[in-house]
Amino acid sequence: EVQLVESGGGLVQLGGSLRLSCAASGFTVSGHFMHWVRQAPGKGLVWVARISSDASSIVYADSVKGRFTLSRDIAKNTLHLQINSLRADDTAVYYCVRLSGTIIWGHGTLVTVSS
Amino acid sequence: EIVLTQSPGTLSLSPGERATLSCRASQSVSSSNLAWYQQKPGQAPRLLIYGASNRATGIPDRFSGSGSGTDFTLTISALEPEDFAVFYCQQYSTLPITFGQGTRLEIK
Questions:
Q1: Pick from A39, A75, A34, A77: nearest CA to A58
Q2: Which of A70, B42, B89, B107 has an alpha carbon 20 to 30 Å from B96's alpha carbon atom?
Q3: Which residues from chain B sit within 8 angstroms of residue A106, using beta carbons?
Q4: For A78-107, how does the pLDDT look when each residue is reduced to its tens digit (9 = 90+)?
Q5: d(CA B55, CA B2)
Q6: Chain A within 8 Å of B50 (Cβ-Cβ)?
Q7: How far apart are CA A57 and CA A24, in angstroms?
Q8: Is A6 within 8 Å of A20 (Cβ atoms)?
Q9: Edge-to-edge, what's the strand order for the sheet holding A18-25?
Q10: Looking at the predicted structure, is the pLDDT value of residue B86 above 90?
Q11: What is the per-residue pLDDT across B7-46, written as a single tens digit (0 to 9) for each?
């Protein structure tokens, strides 16, 4: 079955760090452009970052540039999103998404930033 | 950045009625890269339509998408009780990928 499963969310203090993971099954992440999208509580969907199929191009939304780092582990068929200097407005459900070929979304992982 | 504007913000209808949701883009979007999603509370978005008019696997045929260029429409021909939710359009043609602000479809 083709699916994406996110993990790594949790409660973290303002200014802290967290690493989110997205495990893919049923396909290889190296064959697709992959994205992260987030959704703050009660708000809409916002694109965060994208990694190209060969990982040569990684693009971030302006709001996270310099604080978020997207990478992948080919051996584990997994994406990682390192989030540093967390702010209150980073509180959101983070989704891993494949938009090439059949569109696939994970179920999301919740990040809550507390002061 | 391509801005997607959805209308109306809220749509109040009864089961059995027809729903028409609009998504207007600030610049032309490739039809092959326009999607519609349904989202219920506490759930991930569910893909309904991709490529502007192609139903995703398992989506009932009462859902249909149309449009091109800057104007796109999602139509639900006859609402079922489980259809009431928030709907988003998305363009994935150009970075940054953008979403509309959503249309809330509520039971009248």
A1: A34
A2: B42
A3: 44
A4: 999 999 999 999 999 999 999 988 999 999
A5: 23
A6: yes
A7: 20
A8: yes
A9: A3-7, A18-25, A78-83, A68-73
A10: yes
A11: 999 999 999 999 999 999 999 998 889 999 999 999 999 9
